[in-house]
Amino acid sequence: MSKKNKDIFYDPTLKKRYIKDKIFKYTTLAALVLSLGFLFVFLTSMINKGLGALQQTYIQVEITYDDTTLKNYRKSVEKKYRKLVSRAWLRDIQKRVKNDPSLMNTTQLIWALADDQVDMYKKGNDYKISSKNMQTLQQLEKNNQVKLKFNTTFFTHGDSKSPEYSGIASAVVGTIFAMIVAMVVAFPIGVATAIYLEEFANPDSKWSQTIEININNLAAVPSILFGLLGLAVFINLFGMPRSSALVGGLTLALMTLPIIVVSSRAALRSVPASIRQAGYSLGLSKTQVVKDHVLPLAFPGIMTGSIIGLAQAMGETAPLIIVGMVAFVPDSPNSIFDAATVMPAQIFTWAGMPEMAYIERTALGILVLLSVLISLNTIAVYLRKKFEVKW
To answer: Most buried in the list 97, 214, 265, 288, measured by CB within 10 Å?
Structure first.
């Protein structure tokens, strides 16, 4: 090709367009790498801090069970060890005697839960221990009477004013109760609303358009406003028990409802029109077509959207703070009417505590919450694949 013909097809802006294309490509790649880097730093930090809470320090001391110690639990252990043993653990001596009456009027050498400052010392963190108590502690270490054990307390106890005795069990139970209430309320109402708007309502009517606009707007409302709505309606108007899983679950249901409606409508809309037309051609009514054909095909998408919406609600803290679920709850609730807290609120409470030992528990609580959320998302993907129907 001659030079004259090359000039005819030459575009002077082509080189600049290629350069801009490469810049855009590498900019998006850099953004992806940067976001993954932030995620890696976050997870690494949480794991490094949270793994420490999986172990707890115990010291081997003599515990005396008699009438004197039952009246004053601190006298159950020798005076020189009292600052080293957890006060909250000693406070449960009466419960242990009730569970096992044979312990009465006996002295036993057992592994007692250590104070949080002793635990910090054992793990190499900052601690505050007097020189006198430090000598006693070092003597116990020489005698192999100090060791780290798996922290079962974290998974079997509720919140406590003593960091070493605090756990996430009550928050887990409260979260389960609240999620059950939210799921029972939000799922059927949300799916039924989506079916009506997508299959039966006239899309051109003002009524349908008004409902659709309000649902889309509610999906973008800040979560704390749902907490104010729950406080005004469920607590002030209906007089439901404050800080209960019932109120928390209903509040989360209000917040999740628009998400379920929107995702369910999208799932119903994804079903081909030929499925409906085939049903009508066989003489089926609209209700039969929706119930027996459209809904089963859309069910995987509905389940996926609903589970993801509930998983998002599980991570919310702001609306639950408004309805009082951030309260100190040491015991697990027995019903949805009892005072309860949830995992995000428990983590929020620990994060504001001044004791260093709560930092580990905050990180481990975050890891537990992330594990639950990842599990729910995995279940959503599994259900979608299991019930997905090819057409």
So the answer is: 265
